[in-house]
Amino acid sequence: MKKAWYIYKRYFLAPQILLFVILGIALVNFDKSETQYPLIFIILSLFIMLSLLSAMRYYNYEVLRPKKIIDELNSELFNEFKRNGFKLKGRDWVGQIRDYTVLAGIEWENHQETPDYRFRVLFDPLSLGRNLSLEEYVNYNDLEKNNFYVNLSHLEKSHNLKASSSLNYNRPLSVINSMVDYLIIKNLIPITHKEWGKHVFNIERMEKKYLSKI
Questions:
Q1: For 113-140, what is each residue's pLDDT tens digit?
Q2: Residues 94 and 173: beta-carbon distance below 8 Å
């Protein structure tokens, strides 16, 4: 029942509200001396058109995309991670490289035509006895020095699938090793996937505050 309400609210509710608004405006401005058939036809046509568009959006985001994500997670690239002891959890293969927890998976935002390969190396956000400061956060994200993104609890590198169709295991592995080297230099220590999950909510809130100040 909750899933049905989620689907209706996300894909069908807004178009139907728009239809009712259009219907209200049409009724207010409708000349009662004229026949109602053209108005009824227009409203029915709009209803059918909006319903079809909503159904297409639902099918794309809830059926096609998950299938494509599963296909990609079972591609040869990720099979290499699997062969090296990684376990599939959601949209990520989770394992360890040089004692650091690594997440190798897929990210597909709604605005993206194709998904990203996403590789993350986790670290304890309290490695220094505190969270990274705003100044450290800004300095660590100097893209001229690093070719990856520094979050408050992980390092991240993404490759768009469309632009990286020939990506093989050695390329992300090289970047992952570079990220591990960086974490060691910065004294940011490893953390398990389970423990890291306990920090995610607070870290995301803190990062939003930092981004609003930059």
A1: 788 899 999 999 999 999 999 999 998 8
A2: no
